[in-house]
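Hello,

Our lab assistant flagged a job as stuck in the queue for most of the afternoon. It eventually completed. Since we weren't sure the result was trustworthy after the delay, we are filing this so someone can double-check. Below is the sequence as submitted and the structure that was eventually returned. Let us know if re-running is recommended.
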Amino acid sequence: MKRKIYSDHHRKFHVFFRNIFQKLNIFHWILKKQNTPLEIDPLTGIYNQFGINFYLKELTPYPSQSYSIVLLNIDNYIEIQNYHGLKAAEKKKKKTAELLSTNIRQTDLVGKYGENEFIIILSNISLDDANEVAKRCSDLIQNLSVQHNSELIEIKVSCGVSVSEKDLVSDNVLQYADRALFLAKTSGSNQVRDQRAIFA
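-- returned structure --
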C-alpha cells in the first residue's frame, strides 16, 4: 500500500496526457512502427524527456490548484557506472524508476529527464507538501540497496522542487526546480532544496 501524505483529487492529468497522444495521427503511425511507444523510455518504462516536454507545454496553473515539479538527480550515477559497470548503473536506474512510480498518486506523473535525472509532476499540491514528497522519495531511493556481483550498491540523491504560481509558465516552473536542484547538488548529496532557496 502506498503511503500518502496528501489526499487524492479529481483532476486526471495523466489521462489527459495520454488522450492527447492518441488524438495525434502522426504518433499513431510511429507507434505502430515501434515496439516501445515514442513517449516511453525503453529502459525504465516511464515517460522520457520527449513525453515530459510535450506534457509540460499543456500545463496551466489554476487559481485553486497548483502543480509542483520535482527534479531528482542520482548524484553518484557516473561513479556507479565507472566502478560497477553500465549494467549495474542501468539496474539502479530501473529500480529508481520503479520506486518512484509506485510511490506517487495515479494523478501524478514520473519521467526520466536526463541520463541520471528523473522528474515528478505533482498536481494540486503546495510547495511544502511537494518538499515532503521529494524527501520521502529521496529517502526511499537511498535506502534501496541493489545487489550486483555480490556487492550492495548504494545511491546518493539530490532534489530540486518548485511550484506553479499565477501567470508562471511551465518553463519557468521547471527552471526554478532546476536551479533548486543545482543548489542541492552543490550543498552535498542527499539534499532537498526548493525555489525559495534560490531567492534567499
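-- support follow-up --
The delay was a queue issue, not a problem with the job. The result is valid. The chain is about 45% helix and 20% strand. The first helix runs from residue 13 to 23.
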